[in-house]
């Protein structure tokens, strides 16, 4: 901390990922710039097909970006060789939605969690057998499982327990950054709270930085310090979680929040219903991408694409007519 | 409703599957409830709570080999459990219709949606092909499908998730059923589309007079849609009652825990979410007593016996709970709304 | 739809060209062996060798050789067999083709009808004795060798019971062209049809049953039942209609390979002078021009049959039409 603004842990500039679909181009991620500061949780929200999962993968270069850069701890990882990237891998890990698919069903939990420890040497050289065993015991305790879990197979666990195992594996190499892609959406409500609490406890204890991808706004509000709202491959609003969710500047964010069914009787009456579905990312609408569904659309929105700009309070929105 | 007989009255519904060596695993145990005409009843529970099985049993659609279904389900006085196939078929789709979670997989991929809706109409009504199609187009238009003539000629994969679910609902409503069973109808949809579909379901009662049995895991969906709510846990009814009462004064620790564990969208952000420990039991390993006892913060000796459903809350509003706490004189506190 | 059709046709032409080049190269440009000697046959005189070399242009570059060979196969059709005293091979293939086509097409009709009936009935009555009996029968059909079954059929219909009312209509072995009247054509082929079809009834019946039974687990089948349709309609209009897609692709492959000479054993047993038998003779005599002609002929059929299957696919599955 040298007075100057602290450099972000992760910074994406103009990041894009395009896929070819026949003769057309699907712009899954289209020119996204954002920064994640050390120790914070950036919530990435949006509806299916908005590109949030693809963006998550590109941030770790698990998918090769089509354009733009990602800097991790100040180093550009998009142009890095495979070898150099492998040396960075322990610092950045991922947790996926489908806790079962992410675990090889024929291997014991102990083997699965130990794998990264065997592949990557620790800070003081290669770990011995005892070193690995001790670390395994520490990891399962950390995620709230009994040590006996190490001897068992993935199918013997419930969804919530399996997600704990995935988290343990992601934490094995003491990463600085964890990208979690919908880690609680496949879980039952009573289990969701357990895993959200676990993520928050681990952050407090280990000083982790998260990119937390989710479609559930209330979960994101609980865990995130800042929120990026995506629509059709682009970030339409970015800012502090409380600011964005309580005083949204982009009409899409506002509609998204108002659509969430709250467990409060009578809440549905004060709702702005969006019409229609999300357009195809193969042929996004011209001008503002949201103009086809926007309740406050104006002529300018149909032709001129808005750029992300400050709207005050550290909040940015890509809208010509931000909500007051 | 008063003394009027309910549209559907389910008594002591139990569904058991053979579990090898002559044993049985009870998926649903002694579930009782009723739905009045034009009423929306929410059936809430987590995976494995038996909510979908209950719905399939009402439709006579459980085809697991050797499944044993006991109890009674009277629809307009007619017993559905054990009803012969022919008469069940005449009811299905005409009197009682069902919509499913994923409209992509729930519609036959090789027929147009118009064909599939026509098919259902013609299965129950004496109508010409053209007559059926006219009704199909009208239904699609009522469900808010833009350009319904063209949409009727499209295949399921050519429509968006929201339009597919609208088509699915149009199909379910095609023969003006008195009861619509909706099994997680919005779970596969995005929130903005979910809001549209829920809005549509609420309008059904007004426009079609259909009663809806809405099955969901989402307390938010229940709160804004259902008149009454029934919470299932591990195949049994944990609590039921008018939605407003149940959300304001949940009497079962499971209901209360479920409501508490949802992160709030407004107001103060809790440092930690209140959570329910553990996970729901396997159907084969349910405890003898209260099935929630192993996870319950209030568990004590009296919970070793399976509690009966007893009335609680304001007298006469029909709230009932399968928990010993109210009768022990220490009900749960009301929630702050 | 039209463009998909045109695209498929273009592919077919390209594939045919590729195959012809490949076959030509294998036969005439294999290093270390002189194609002249192979065409002229064993113990050919030096004069014959010289004549062959000149006629086929083996002293000219490969592309010229290829063009000449294709010209003789398809345009002038005067490719002659030296082993068989100058017999023209193309007319031989053209004479044999209708025999094989009649045999395979008739058998195909029988096996489609029988296997669809068998698979559908077994699936509708799955788990019952009828189901198990039919599947057992299918297995028996698959395990009976076609030459053995053919000989048994001959034994029964030609000698042992030929005098009884049941088989007195069966003519002697051989083929009667359709031009001699449909009745003769039919009676000559009826027994070979059945014999050839038995194996495929077994395979297709079992495959279809398995497909239909797994279709019962699909959501759309449950929807169809929830609509109040009869079980028969659910099975036929929803289950069978969807399962036919795999059935058709299997059929295209089998039909093509049979027409391309795969019905050899049946042809031999029933004294039918078809393509399979012709290829067999060519192989025994090392009659290179004849082999070349039959191989090209089968290739044409396999490729055409595949193109037809793909077109049927387009009709059966709307998802394929949209290129999904």
Percent strand of chain C equals: under 5%
In quaternary terms, these chains amount to heterotrimer
Count all strands of chain A and give the number.
Answer: 12
Q: What is the level-2 CATH architecture name of the largest domain in chain C?
A: Orthogonal Bundle
Query: Which CATH top level class of the largest domain in chain C fits?
Result: Mainly Alpha
Strand order across the largest sheet of chain A: 6-7-8-3-9-10-12-11
Helix content range of chain A: 25-40%
Listing every helix as H and every strand as E from the N terminus to the C terminus, the arrangement of chain A reads EEEHEEHEHHHEHEHEEHHEE
Cα-to-Cα separation, first versus last residue of chain C? 13 Å
- The third-level CATH topology of the largest domain in chain C is MetI-like fold
Q: How helix-rich are the residues of chain C, as a percent range? A: over 70%
Arithmetic mean of pLDDT of chain C: 85
Number of helices of chain C: 14
Number of structural units classed as domains of chain C? 2
Helices and strands in order:
The complex is a heterotrimer of chains A (324), B (337) and C (324).
Chain A: E1 10-21, E2 24-36, E3 41-45, H1 52-59, E4 67-72, E5 75-76, H2 82-88, E6 92-95, H3 109-119, H4 129-142, H5 159-171, E7 177-181, H6 189-206, E8 209-214, H7 217-223, E9 226-231, E10 234-240, H8 241-246, H9 251-259, E11 309-312, E12 315-317
Parallel strand pairs in A: 3-8, 3-9, 6-7, 7-8
Antiparallel strand pairs in A: 1-2, 1-4, 4-5, 9-10, 10-12, 11-12
Helix pairs in contact in A: 3-5, 5-6
Chain B: E1 8-18, E2 24-35, E3 40-44, H1 51-59, E4 68-75, E5 78-79, H2 85-91, E6 96-99, H3 113-124, H4 129-142, H5 148-152, H6 161-173, E7 179-183, H7 191-208, E8 211-216, H8 219-225, E9 228-233, E10 236-242, H9 243-248, H10 253-260, E11 310-311, E12 320-321
Parallel strand pairs in B: 3-8, 3-9, 6-7, 7-8
Antiparallel strand pairs in B: 1-2, 1-4, 4-5, 9-10, 10-12, 11-12
Chain C: H1 2-28, H2 35-40, H3 46-56, H4 62-75, E1 80-81, E2 87-88, H5 89-124, H6 129-143, H7 146-160, H8 182-216, H9 219-226, H10 231-262, H11 264-269, H12 275-285, H13 288-316, H14 318-321
Antiparallel strand pairs in C: 1-2
Helix pairs in contact in C: 1-13, 5-6, 5-8, 5-10, 6-8, 7-8, 8-10, 9-10, 10-12, 10-13, 12-13
């Amino acid at each position: 901390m040298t007075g100057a603004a602290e450099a972000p842990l992760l910074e994406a500039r103009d990041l894009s990922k395009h896929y070819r679909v026949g003769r057309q181009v699907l712009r899954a991620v289209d020119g996204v710039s954002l920064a994640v500061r050390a120790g914070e949780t950036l919530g990435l929200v949006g509806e299916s097909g908005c590109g949030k999962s693809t963006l998550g993968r590109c941030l770790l270069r698990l998918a090769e970006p089509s354009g733009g850069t990602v800097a991790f701890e100040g180093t550009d990882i998009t142009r890095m060789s495979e070898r150099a990237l492998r040396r960075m891998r322990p610092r950045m890990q991922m947790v996926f939605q489908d806790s079962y698919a992410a675990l090889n069903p024929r291997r014991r939990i102990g083997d699965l969690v130990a794998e990264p420890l065997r592949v990557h040497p620790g800070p003081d050289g290669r770990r011995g057998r005892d070193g690995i065993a001790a670390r395994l015991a520490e990891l399962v305790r950390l995620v709230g499982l009994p040590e006996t879990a190490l001897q068992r197979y993935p199918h013997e666990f419930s969804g919530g327990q399996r997600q704990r195992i995935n988290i343990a594996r992601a934490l094995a190499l003491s990463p600085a950054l964890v990208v979690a892609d919908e880690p609680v959406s496949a879980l039952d409500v009573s289990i969701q709270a357990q895993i959200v609490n676990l993520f928050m406890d681990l952050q407090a204890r280990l000083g982790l930085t998260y990119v937390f991808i989710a479609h559930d706004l209330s979960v994101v509000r609980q865990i995130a310090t800042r929120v990026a709202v995506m629509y059709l491959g682009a970030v339409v609003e970015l800012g502090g979680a409380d600011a964005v969710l309580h005083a949204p500047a982009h009409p899409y964010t506002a509609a998204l929040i108002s659509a969430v069914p709250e467990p409060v009787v009578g809440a549905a009456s004060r709702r702005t219903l969006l019409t229609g579905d999300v357009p195809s990312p193969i042929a996004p609408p011209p001008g503002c991408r949201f103009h086809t569904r926007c309740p406050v659309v104006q002529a300018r929105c149909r032709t001129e694409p808005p750029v992300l700009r400050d709207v005050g309070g550290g909040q940015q929105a890509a809208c010509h007519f931000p909500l007051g | 409703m008063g003394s009027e007989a309910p549209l559907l009255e389910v008594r002591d519904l139990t569904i058991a599957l053979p579990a090898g060596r002559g044993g049985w695993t009870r998926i649903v145990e002694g579930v009782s409830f009723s739905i009045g005409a034009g009423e929306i009843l929410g059936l809430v529970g987590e995976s494995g709570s038996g909510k979908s099985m209950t719905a399939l049993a009402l439709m006579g659609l459980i085809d697991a080999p050797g499944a044993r279904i006991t109890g009674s389900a009277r629809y307009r006085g007619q017993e559905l459990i054990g009803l012969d196939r022919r008469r069940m078929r005449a009811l299905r789709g005409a009197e009682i219709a069902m919509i499913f979670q994923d409209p992509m997989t729930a519609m036959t991929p090789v027929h147009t949606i118009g064909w599939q809706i026509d098919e259902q109409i013609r299965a129950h009504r004496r109508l010409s092909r053209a007559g059926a199609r006219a009704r199909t187009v009208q239904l699609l238009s009522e469900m808010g499908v833009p350009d319904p003539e063209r949409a009727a000629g499209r295949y399921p994969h050519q429509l968006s998730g929201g339009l597919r679910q609208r088509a699915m609902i149009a199909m379910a409503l095609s023969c003006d059923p008195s009861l619509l069973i909706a099994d997680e109808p919005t779970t596969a949809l995005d929130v903005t589309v979910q809001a549209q579909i829920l809005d549509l379901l609420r309008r059904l009662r007004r426009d079609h007079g259909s009663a809806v049995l809405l099955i969901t895991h989402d307390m938010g969906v229940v709160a804004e849609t259902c008149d009454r709510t029934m919470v299932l846990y591990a195949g049994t009814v944990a609590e039921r009652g008018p939605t407003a009462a149940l959300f304001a004064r949940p009497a079962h620790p499971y209901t209360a825990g479920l409501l508490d564990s949802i992160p709030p969208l407004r107001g103060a952000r809790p440092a930690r979410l209140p959570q329910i420990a553990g996970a729901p039991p396997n159907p084969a390993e349910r405890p003898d007593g209260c099935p929630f006892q192993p996870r319950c913060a209030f568990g004590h000796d009296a919970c070793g016996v399976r509690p009966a459903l007893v009335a609680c809350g304001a007298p006469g509003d029909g709230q009932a709970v399968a928990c010993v706490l109210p009768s022990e004189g220490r009900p749960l506190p009301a929630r702050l709304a | 739809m039209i463009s998909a059709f045109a695209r498929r046709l273009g592919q077919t032409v390209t594939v045919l060209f590729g195959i012809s080049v490949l076959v030509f190269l294998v036969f005439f440009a294999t290093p270390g062996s002189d194609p002249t000697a192979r065409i002229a046959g064993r113990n050919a005189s030096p004069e014959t060798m010289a004549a062959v070399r000149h006629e086929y242009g083996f002293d000219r570059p490969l592309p010229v050789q290829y063009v000449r060979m294709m010209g003789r196969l398809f345009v002038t059709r005067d490719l002659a067999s030296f082993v068989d005293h100058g017999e023209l091979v193309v007319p031989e293939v053209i004479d044999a083709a209708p025999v094989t086509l009649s045999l395979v097409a008739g058998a195909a009709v029988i096996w489609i009808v029988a296997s669809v009936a068998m698979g559908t009935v077994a699936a509708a009555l799955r788990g019952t004795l009828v189901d198990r009996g039919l599947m057992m029968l299918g297995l028996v059909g698959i395990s009976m060798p076609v030459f053995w079954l053919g000989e048994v059929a001959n034994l029964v219909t030609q000698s042992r019971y030929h005098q009884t009312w049941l088989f007195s209509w069966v003519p002697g072995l051989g083929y009667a062209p359709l031009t001699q009247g449909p009745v003769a054509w039919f009676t000559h082929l009826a027994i070979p049809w059945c014999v050839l079809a038995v194996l495929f009834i077994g395979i297709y019946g079992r495959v279809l049953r398995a497909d239909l039974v797994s279709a019962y687990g699909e959501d759309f089948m449950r929807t169809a039942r929830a609509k109040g349709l009869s079980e028969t309609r659910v099975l036929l209009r929803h289950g069978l209609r969807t399962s036919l897609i795999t059935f058709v692709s299997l059929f295209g492959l089998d039909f093509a390979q049979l027409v391309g000479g795969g019905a050899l054993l049946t042809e031999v047993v029933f004294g039918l002078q078809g393509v399979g038998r012709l290829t067999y003779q060519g192989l025994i005599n090392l009659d290179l021009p004849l082999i070349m002609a039959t191989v090209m002929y089968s290739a044409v059929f396999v490729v055409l049959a595949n193109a037809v299957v793909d077109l049927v696919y387009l009709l059966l599955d709307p998802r394929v039409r949209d290129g999904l």
